[in-house]
## 1
Amino acid sequence: MIRMNDFGGEPEALLQAEVRAAERVIRSGWYVLGTQVEQFEKHWAGHCGAAHAVGVGNGLDAIEIGIRSLGLGEGDEVIPTPMTAFATILGILRAGATPVLADIEPQSALLDLRSAERSITARTKAILLVHLYGRMPGMAPWVALCRDRGLVLAEDCAQAHSARVGGKTAGTFGAWGAYSFYPTKNLGAIGDAGALVTDDPQIGASARILRNYGQENRYEHSRLGMNSRLDELQAALLEARLPWLDRFIERRRAIAARYHEGIRNHALRLLALPVEESAHVYHLFVIACEERDRLAQHLKERGIESLIHYPIPAHLQAPCSGLRRDPRGLAHSEKHARTCLSIPCQPQMSDADVGTVIEALNAFR
Ligand SMILES: *Cc1c(COP(=O)(O)O)cnc(C)c1O
């Protein structure tokens, strides 16, 4: 089986580094918010070119904490895409703010600028860009739109570790970037983990308070926070995995390049190439096909796993049917959800595996 993820196939040297990291933490006798977390925060901030990184429990919490750290809540509108992991929308809702959904552009499946503009109201406070599948858009128009309309720009970077536009890393274009280190992400822990990166010392300080019960000084609670602390074990494991991130991404890019070159089938559509090579880290390689379910079955019969990201856009999820949206509707998101298919594109695939996937796709009728 050619799998979407293959942790068992990771290099022995990485496994050994993880075992050493875990042993170090267990023997240290210190398990929550300690030196491992501090180290990883420092290194992750450095990797992103951000002034601060705050380790939290997961990516969902990073988004909630990010929205709350902007002082947004009841009555404040935030514009995301409905074509995303549900956590993007849930993070806004849990912060008490109101998501207003704008449509995607079909070539990239990323938020459409004109649709976002149409969705702005007097209550709009922020645009939350999702770097879906690991791809960043050209950022200049978004920075300009937010500046011109007095909105905060924020980034959901859960799929886009190490993605860069114009040499600047995902999460550093606006007020903050939210990262998830869920195991399947390009940088994953061995359990749940997340981080918020920011250049703004006030947002950084607020995130540190919110992740720890709203505790400002020991046993003094200035806000109603949550328990969303990155633990020492996950921080140490992330630290062990970080040196592998960029070479794993290089492998993902090489596989994606072979897909772009080798897939020749009029029944399939590839998403457009990114604005520059560094803007896409291929967390997922997604194709579109009118007969998506039959294609998935065809691949399965040839030993190739595939997944759908995502079959149901946010506005068609039961608790979200009442959410406001672009007055012209979300037709591109709905079509994408009906036709998209993610095919294996992970660093442990062999060249032969990549060839097998290309042949199977080209043989689909
Ligand atoms: C995975 C993901 C999240 C949520 O991260 P968790 O760590 O699973 O909570 C949020 N947004 C996007 C786009 C994701 O892919």
Note: The first strand starts at residue 52 and ends at 56.
## 2
Amino acid sequence: MKKDTLIVTTGRDPEANHGVVNPPVYHASTILHPTVAAMEAAQRPDYTGTRYGRRGTPTTFALEEAVAALEGGYRSVATGSGLAAIVATLFAFLESGDHLLMVDSVYGPSRRTCETFLKKFGVQTTYYDPTIGAGIADLIRDDTRLVFTEAPGSLTFEMQDIPAIAEAAHARGVVVAMDNSWASPLFFDPFRHGVDVSIQAATKYIVGHSDAMLGVITANETHFGTVQQAAHSLGAAPGPDDVYLGLRGLRTLGVRLPRHQENGIRLATWLQGRPEVARILHPALPDDPGHALWKRDFTGACGLFGVLLHPRPKAAVDAMLDGLDLFGMGASWGGYESLILPVHPEKIRTARPWTEPGPLLRIHAGLEDVADLIADLEAGFARLAAAA
Ligand SMILES: *Cc1c(COP(=O)(O)O)cnc(C)c1O
């Protein structure tokens, strides 16, 4: 089945729910077992039913089934946030004395986990240039257990050659994980490109309406047990209402994301022609350094991209942003509404330092009429000029 059909059909069983179209929300902690034998059966590792609220209910299982089908993995496990999914994945494969290869353009809080928990627990992290490709082989050591990827990178949008990295890692028996939130399950097939474990910050496009926190880890058959055990041990289970919102959001992913893509590309193209703009960071644009990889491996782009301005005083950029009507300022992205945020990769990068002199903005193109969004930015540039 094609993805648009899977989005609508997977993780649903109306016959089991009185004909109701959507899976019901099960609120649960205790799960009752009628006999000792039934209780013992529920404790076996291969048991897939309900056992305890933290381990999921039929609502959770429906979301997990749907995301696993869309990502093309073996099975999925849901978590209480995207970050919980990332932390569980790191904890699943790393122990004291191990070495991690982490992409330098990784989502900031993922990096913080390496600098805090992993460091404290004796795991060494080497950050690598996101554009390293097959060159990752030179950084793999005997104690390397995991290569963590994210494409395009958070804030700076570098593409990664995932198949080349996976090939080099697998040649040394190293597991490959990917934060696949930017593409969502719709626009990149991680398992067909060599990834072993894929992470979705479902908070973003799967929920899609800025109203729930949710993560999903999907793994291949070899690694699913390890990942599921880590996620359950972490105890960061999602709440049933948030899982329901994830399932509900998922059903329209196939129509929302192409519109985010279209608005994003139209905004990016318009911005490219502005004299205030030095460069657009968006792999779907033909002159982006990551375009060839994006075109080879991805089937689309979401609405999130970067805008590098020519150097301007902070007060002028603040004046531009403060007066915007349609672009909200705030963390996260993937909802129906447009967002804009000044970002500072120069503060965190080490392997491939960010040295651009001008201010960097991150835009999330929402589902508004793009002409209104352009008019809002145009007025913002007028305020920038007046204040500069
Ligand atoms: C937001 C984000 C996350 C974290 O997701 P939360 O649900 O907010 O914890 C992870 N990875 C990327 C790339 C993100 O943008």
Note: The CA atoms of residues 181 and 274 lie 29 Å apart.
## 3
Amino acid sequence: MNKSQAQQLDLNDPLAEKRAEFCLNPGQIYLDGNSLGLLTKASRLRAKEVTVDQWGEGLITSWNTHHWIDLPVKIGEKIAPLIGAEPGQVICTDSVSVNLFKLLACALAMQPGRIKVLSQTDNFPTDLYITQGINALLGENRCQILLVEDEDIADAIDESVAVLLLTQVNFRSGKVHDMRQITELAHQSGALVIWDLAHSAGAIPVSLDCCEVDFAVGCGYKFLNGGPGAPAFIYAAKRHHQQIQQPLQGWMGHRSPFEFSPTYRPAEGIQSFLVGTPPVISMSILDAALDVFQDIDLCQLQEKSKALSEFFIGLITQYAQLSEFVMASPEQSEERGSQLSFHHPDAYAICQALIDEGVIADFRAPDILRFGITPLYTSFCDIWVAVERLVRVVEQGSYRRPEYQIKARVT
Ligand SMILES: *Cc1c(COP(=O)(O)O)cnc(C)c1O
């Protein structure tokens, strides 16, 4: 594998033009879009519009004239086709963490006689922390947690499980769960399933309706490119809407917030998951960012992700200097999300040295160097250059410098 191969693959790439819709920094190669997606040109423009024009000029009238109040529903409907959901089931609101709290409480309440929440030991920590918080709030008589390794999930599903809470794409390894199979298994035992799509939405095709998923949450700032701290989303299958009773009863989830009634009456359907005032600036930026997906076929996107990854793996294996990098992601591309992870004893320092070389990846404790593969704006030449620079960092040993050993607050 070499540079001219990368150039050829770029020439034949049907998604190559999409790159022009993003704000790329010249000379920099960004392989961290699974943690914070790139800024789109549309979002950059919208940020100015929503602050200077809509807020600055329109002030409070913009809630109506610029339809700020409709943003949670409007964005939910834009995300819906990316996750295989028919209209009326997705809404943009709060963070993944807060949404998990609402969904978990809601799902437990729908399962009288069952108290067990089953999840994976290496789930994303916030999913586990929220579950532990619900457990502390409700007590052991109403919520019990059972954590198992991935390979033991199927065996652990039985009639005692109230809710199965899983993240579809593992944040460290990129390993993907079989959503259809696991959801079906859970339903056979009468359990409800909540899927965390943080590393799935906008990265791989997802079919929530087809898989008969009960509930899901997902992230706005990763593959959806909504910007730092962008709001997240909730999916709730229509068949459950009559039973939704979520505990964070805020005024935006009220049937008629502007009646200012002293008594809470939930809005119909998915809107009852709203809590407080939507963060209009963040939401507007996410709204604009989602337009890049309008003409995207997610299967085509996945094909490019696989091709970029295979090219990456091919390069890594061809350099003897990189033999210390051990794949932490599944070998088979069908079993991976849109990222590649490698174990290396000096992963943190190498990541810092790489950033100084203009290649942005990230580190995940204890020893993982993680590369996000984002086919909308990553080229094969990017991958080629990134690996060249990685070889240089390792060969020259620049990562051994003391300043690269100091852990920052955010890794
Ligand atoms: C990034 C991520 C989150 C983020 O949660 P927030 O509360 O929105 O910060 C949650 N779950 C998973 C699996 C993630 O990867």
Note: The chain has a mean pLDDT of 97.
